[in-house]
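Ticket closed. Logging final result for Coiled-coil domain-containing protein 40.
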Amino acid sequence: MADDAGDTPGADPAVTSVPPAQTMAAAPAPAGFGERPATRGDTPAANSDAADIPDEAEQQLVADMVNNPMLDKVQKILVETLLREQQRTANEARELAEMAQRASRKREDTGVELYGAQQQLARLQLSLEQIHANAAELAEQRAHEETAAQEARARHGSLNKALSDRRKHVAKNQAELDAINDTLRQVETYNEEMQKEIAVTKRATYKAEEQVQSLEKAKEGQDLYVNKLDERARVLGERIAVTEARLAKQQDESAEARKLLAETGQEMDLVAFEKKQLLQQWKSSLVQLARRDEALAAAQTQLEAAREVIRDVENEIIGTRREENKQITANRSLEELSGKIGLQEAQCVEETQKYTAEADAVAAQFDLLHAAMTQVDEEEKKIAEEGKHTKDGLGQLSANIQIVTVERQKIEQKVLSAASDRATINNAIEALKKPLKAVKQRTQDLEMQQVMVDNELARVKIDALNTKAHNDQLKETLASFDVKLKEQEDLIGKYQREIRQRHDDVEKKTLRVAFLNRKLQLHLKDIDLGPEEAMGPLENEIRMLRKETSKIKEECSRLQGVWLADQTRLVEVAQRTEAILEETAELRARNRILDERRIRITKEGTEKRAAVAALHKATAGMRADTARLNELIGKHTKQQEALSNETGVLELSFRAELKELETESLAAEQKVHEARSRKNVLLEEVIDGERQVLLWEKKIELERETQAALDPSVGTGEIKAMEIEIHRMKMRLEGLQREQEAMIKEMERGIAKREAITLRYKGKARPTALEHTKQSLREHVKKLRGKIQATAREASQLSNAITNKKQELDTSTSELADATARYGSLETDANDLQQAINRLLYEKQRRAELQAAKEATVGRYLDLERGTAELRGPEHASEVDAALSRGAENLGRCRDVIAALGKRFDYLAEPLGRIKHLADDAEAGQLVAT
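Final structure:
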């Protein structure tokens, strides 16, 4: 019932907005009106007492409620409102009686007006018949005009025949032009494509002319065509402006590219300067190496002088007679030593010959490289001359093409002048020739621009091809130079390694000679000096061998000088190679710039072709528009007939709709009456709710008295519990009192709102008698329908908003899922990247340790070479072997521990693998404990 009251338009809002306490009390229960579920304070006795309250108590309760001072204000307001309502009702009754009289008089006037409207409708039907007759006459006139248009089309066909003869003459000229183009195609394949494009453009131009002449059939499309041409000219102007803006932008980009090239050139100059410094350092190192070799030669000469002194002493020792047997044994040992030295000298001679042969081979390769460079220079000169000849030929060819284009344009000008002399159709056709000339002029300008662009594109392509061929040749030459340079560097490295090995051998032999000298000194201590004796044949042979050894050493020093000269020549070859690389880089930059120019020119050509195609499309659109206008005219006549039929049908439908609205208005009045009755019922329910509240209060009071009577002596805990319960009941009482006050205020507000609703439309001007007619009711119903439609639209908008929110929620959910998936993928990628970083860091650390170990090894070798470190002899071989075996055992145990940990802990596979790699490096001897 409350829902019905809320849905009814005239329902009182005060009745619908009942406080929570009232709704709880007003709700009917199956057990009886006014009962509630048993709470902690309710007992069966209390419930039975509440049920046995006599009618006198209820009447007394109602009297107390009426005499309650809190309701005085409400009763006063209710009495005032009832008095005012009574007065208003009496006034409305008098007004309604007067309005009924007015309505009767108005009904009579309406009958008279309806008769006049019927007469007016008859006159309108007569005028409609006259309009139909006029439409038939207009249709006949249109048929006559169409026959005249067909005759004009026939005349236009005869004129087209004359125009076709002129086009045949133009076709002959085109054949001659094609013959010239055939001769030009034999020069280069690219020019053939260019002539094809020119022919296509000409055919497109002729097609545009035919389309323009075909547009002369419809005079009404002339203005539209001129407007479209003007619009097209404006679009082309805008495109030209855009092209100029692009050109300025490209010029800025070219300036930036030149700036970037200048910066790159500066950086390349810095690199070349650093390279020159490195070459100078290399030369200085070679000079220092030569000085070192000279110092070594001086030391060797001093050693030879010392050896000569030793030889003299040996000759004196050999001359002694006391130790002949000992001297013979010493001579035998010296003979064996001299044999070994002879074998070593023979090996040195062979190696020297080998080095000389390799030096000759290197010289021959250098000569070949020099010859190849000279050949490359000659080929470059030839290519430059061929490029000049090709450019001259292309210039002449472009000049011939421009001459032919100018002649063709002159022929077209003659054709246009002849066509203008024979133009005798009408003034409209004469007016169309000016824009046609303008279009042809623009077409010719576009053709000239296209020819210039094609010529420029051809030049750029030829330059690009020449540059590309030259770059390919330079690349091949550079590749061959790189291969040869790599071979020379490998050979130099081999020579350096062999030189270091020979130095090591010399040092070993020097140490061996020092050892033998010390041993000789030990032997000489036991020998007494005696008279000299003559030296034998073996001593002379030894002296001869020593002289040959000195000659071989001199030859070695000479070969070292030759090697230094070869090193200087190698530096010069490297400098020349660097110059060739710089030239190649410059040519590549030029090629890149030419490629960009070619791309830009090609793009401009495509844009111009697109503009011509757009013109063709616009002419075809105009023809389609004329056909569409004819179709629309036919549709207009059909729609006019359909509209006359629809007016009659709508008139009948409006009459039926008026009857339906009358029935709906009666139904609405019935609903208003029902709503008022429901309102009265709700007021009665509110009074019953107030009575129920009073009953609840009496129950609460009775419950308190029974609790106080049943529990006179309770312990402290129970007393506290009772105090808490009393406090809770007090709070509940205060809440009920607040609810009661709110209810009273709500009642006052309901009474005031009821009066406001009653007086809402009373303050306005009194409705006239016209508002009670069918038209006024129709307008009122229309307003109500508008409100209903607005409410429906708002409901649909709200439902659409709800669906949109749901869709947004779904999209947000999907986006959240996608974001979660992306986050997961990014997290996996981050993990992979972190693992890769860890691997790279480990590899970096490993290589750094390897480098440090190698540097430590090199440092030890250098210390041994300088003599600052002590070299362990064969007597320490056993200790070294024992240390090596202990290290191998420790490494094996480490490997076993790593394998065991890897089997037991799978998640440590990566760090254990790194440790295993370190163990492998240690086993391979790459890591050395420093």
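The mean pLDDT is 70. No further action required.
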